[in-house]
Amino acid sequence: MTFSRETSKKGLSWFRGIFSMATLLFSTTLLVPSLSSAKETTGVLMVSNKHISAFDGKTSFSPKHIINYQNLFIDITKTKPYRDPNGRIVAIPRNAIFKNANEVTFRFWHPRHEPRLLDGIVVKSYDKNGHLIHHGVFDRGVFVSMMIKDLFHGKWVELQDVGTFVQGDKSLYVKVRIRHSKQIALVPFATFLQDFANRINTEPVISWAVK
Questions:
Q1: Distance between CA atoms of residues 173 and 184, nearest Å
Q2: Second label for 26, Cα 20 to 30 Å away, from 3, 16, 124, 198?
Q3: How many domains does the chain have?
């Protein structure tokens, strides 16, 4: 929007104030996930790469169970995959895209300086001599689209947090809300990360960066 030279400073200041407030409300509503309480949730689902089922165990979505990504990173090699406490594995994908990769690293990126939000992941692959082969930065829009297609079979979801939400289980889970419902779904973080790795460079929105 452009303003004519006759626009008063007072009017311009008022408009900027209203615009800033509207922008803040918009970003707070759409970009920052809300923490779910038991009163808002009618059921919890557990998601795997094969099916979605009702979860009858004990969960807690308290903020204290949400992880801080500031120091979280995952490095895997052909002989040493990532393994969560329940034995779920994240391994280097067995496809042509990672054919020459001996090591793959995952770093979690915080463009909004909010280390509790799963904003982005930086992925790099290296050959057996430690030379960089590919790299890419992927954001939450890619993650949501991927989960809708691969894990939720077309059901729209809203990505919220990652944490240790299942009582007695130290594994990490991605917490999402099924849109237009009060259901929460938990996706094992290892399942999420493996599915994401398998999809890299399979379509334009999940492509490696150009060297």
A1: 12
A2: 3
A3: 1
Q: Which domain holds residue 97?
A: 41-59+67-210
**Residue type present at position 197:** A
Spatial separation of the C-alpha atoms in residues 208 and 201, rounded to whole Å: 6
What pTM was computed for the model?
0.77
Digit-by-digit pLDDT tens for the chain (211 residues) are 322 333 334 343 433 443 343 443 333 333 333 333 333 456 899 998 888 999 989 999 999 999 988 778 999 999 999 999 999 999 999 999 999 999 999 998 887 778 788 888 999 999 999 999 999 999 988 999 999 999 998 989 999 999 999 999 999 999 999 988 889 999 999 999 999 999 999 988 899 997 6
76 within domain boundaries: yes
Contact 102, 126 (CB under 8 A): yes
